[in-house]
Amino acid sequence: xxxxxxxxxxxxxxxxxxxAAAAAPHRQGATTxxxxxxxxxxxxxxxxxxxxxIAGEAPDAAAAQDRLNRAMAAALHAAxxxxxxxxxxxxxxxxxxDAKRTAWIARQELSLSCDAAPGAPAAAGLRGLIGQLQHAGxxxxxxxxxxxxxxxxxxxxxxxxxxxxxLRAEAQAVARSLGETVGTIRTVQVDGPPVRPVFGGLxxxxxxxxxxxxxxxxxxxxxxxxxxxxxxxxx
Length: 235
Fold this sequence. Notes:
It comes from Acidiphilium cryptum (strain JF-5). The chain has about 240 residues and is α+β, with helices and mostly antiparallel strands. It folds into two domains: about 5-45 and about 150-200 and about 215-230, Protein of unknown function (DUF541), domain 1 (Translation Initiation Factor IF3), CATH 3.30.110; about 45-145, 7,8-Dihydro-6-hydroxymethylpterin-pyrophosphokinase HPPK (Alpha-Beta Plaits), CATH 3.30.70. Helix content is about 30%, strand content about 35%. It contains four helices and eight strands. Strands 1, 6, 7 and 8 form a four-stranded antiparallel sheet that branches. A hairpin with a 7-residue loop joins strand 3 (about 85-95) and strand 4 (about 105-115). The longest helix is centred in the last third of the chain and has 29 residues, at about 150-175.
């Protein structure tokens, strides 16, 4: 969990506490309130990523690897010919498929991505490439929509703002119930990964049309914890 000291001024402002109060000494006997809330914000994916498994089978390990290597080289060549598509290779495995070790399979992952929403025309090249590779025998392991770095940062900032507003409301409600008011914010901690939509039912190989992608919005969730000192209400 990352401590974001930069959030202290923002949280203090939203909680209606003077910024200078953050440096105020702790009052003896003061009520200390610890709260945890979750804020969220949603945005439709504006990027796309896929993981594909390329495989080669043969009676011996060397031949299986040779078939895999040739198939992967062809897949990379095809990917390099599609504008806007990035292709990188991943894990490589070679294993026998029977107890007598008379049949072998070699597998390697191919990661594909582009900076376009999955259903957008700009992503048509990647979707077409996936269909082409499936037709050649590749297995689609995952296909998901993502947020670009800039969009993810903006969405997370909105989620943090939502969390701070929730924190403010809860802190004020607790303070009122105790006959006190919100005072100094002593600590603030924030954490939370995005929740990405993943398209299921796409792990197929063989003859296949290009996959259809219509993802839901991605939700950024931020968990915010704060320690707040309360101040007796003025009489």
